[in-house]
Amino acid sequence: MLEQAPRWPVPTRSQLWWQRAELGLFTHFGMNTFTDREWGDGHEEPRQFNPRNFDARQWARAAKAGGFKYVILTAKHHDGFCLWPSRHTEHSVKNSPWRGGRGDAVREFVDAMRAEGLRPGLYLSPWDRHERTYGDSPRYNDYYIAQLSELLTQYGPICELFLDGANGEGPNGKKQVYDWDLVHRTVRRLQPNALMFSDAGPDIRWIGNERGTAGDPNWCTVNPALVPYAGFDAPEVGEWLQHGNADGTVWRPGEADVSIRPGWFHHEGENAKVRGTQNLMELYFASVGRNANLLLNVPPTRDGLFHAADVSALVEFGTRLDQTFAHDFAAGARVRKSVEGIELSLPERAPIGMVVLREQIERGQSVSRYRVEAHVYGAWSVVSRGTTIGHKKIDRFAPVTSERWRVIIEESLRPPRFGEIGLFRGAD
Predict the structure, then answer these.
(1) Distance of CA 107 to the CA centre of its chain
(2) pTM of the entire structure?
(3) What is the C-alpha separation between 83 and 102, in angstroms, rounded?
């Protein structure tokens, strides 16, 4: 007899893949790379764009070495310059000297990612400081949909469309009312398996900051009425996005974005300010370890390559991750489940300093409070306490040597469904 579908929110197949991927790479590249700015004004000349040694395959290899599973490229940032030869504007690579005006960075990007077994995603800024129709809402919405349609029909499947809500026009600037419903319908029609990110979703939500840190607790479910559209502003928005809602009616897991450098685009003066391995590990624990995906930005240089310092950081991060989770002491353990939780008896006593918990999120998220205990000196002792689990929760603590461990569920919305439980020596 087939099990009935849950009566509460659960992830789609695409969302489930995305959450299991855990690590995504962001790459901010475009006109700002050549003007040494973060936000261009749209008056740049296409001839300024000329990455002479452009090699997206190098990006892909570095991302793969770091353990990342998907990569998102800024196909168009706020300055409106397009990294593909769009038919709808002259402000694009087709009027640059790169590749003799015949280049297409989006094409080279998606091909390179797929060649290395990574899934490509794209960022298309709604704010456009170059396009004359911006501010004439109906006309600009048509323009945006036309460009979106190019990206969704010419480059094969993408895993994520990143919709940035940034707009620095100010109180006296142009007023553009985005047709988000049309954007969402267009994506669903042209690429039904692609996930849409914005602060409001509809598939992935922003985590509420650009520090790469998720909230604790952190629910995958949200109340869509609290953040009804991208760019919605209210005093509590950051808090809502950080934590989600236990009683949320839709599944919108969080993505925690942060840059490996102080800026989002490459600046030569920041080459000595690349995050180190330990810093990247702390970001991992504060995002993936709190039931969110980590989206780490790594910006290419004017040559069109990741800088050696960034590549080294990615490689070392990937190596450290592999080392940290290389040996799971829970592998081969005897497992006993009860109403209140789950107990593991290890093949041998071992010093444990980290526990990795998972729920079977394909059936939803349930746990709201738990504790982890080790059996030492003939009694159970609490080594950590937590709130939500979701796809993954990582607790670190002073190492404890024991062969018996258990997780006690103190509060849950419904009977929990445990996934894997991992026990590790701990991170340095």
Answers:
(1) 22
(2) 0.97
(3) 11
Which homologous superfamily is 334-424 in?
Answer: Galactose-binding domain-like (2.60.120.260)
Kindly list the distances between the CA atom of residue 172 and the CA atoms of 135, 162, 169, 177, in Å, as whole numbers in the listed order: 12, 27, 7, 15
Task: Say if 13-324 and 334-424 have the same CATH topology.
Answer: no
Angle at 268 between CA 75 and CA 40, to 5 degrees: 40
Query: What CATH number does the domain located at 13-324 have?
Result: 3.20.20.80
Burial state string for 399-417 with b = 16 or more CB within 10 A and e = fewer than 16: ebebbbbbbbbeebeeebb
Taking only the tens place, the pLDDT of each residue in 83-102 is 999 999 999 999 999 999 99
Residue 170 has pLDDT above 50, yes or no: yes
Q: What are phi and psi of 418, to 5 degrees?
A: -75, 140
Beta-bridge mates of residue 394: 356
Burial of 305 (0-12, 13-18, 19+ CB in 10 A): buried
Where are the chain's structural domains? 13-324, 334-424
For 122, the token pair is 């794209």
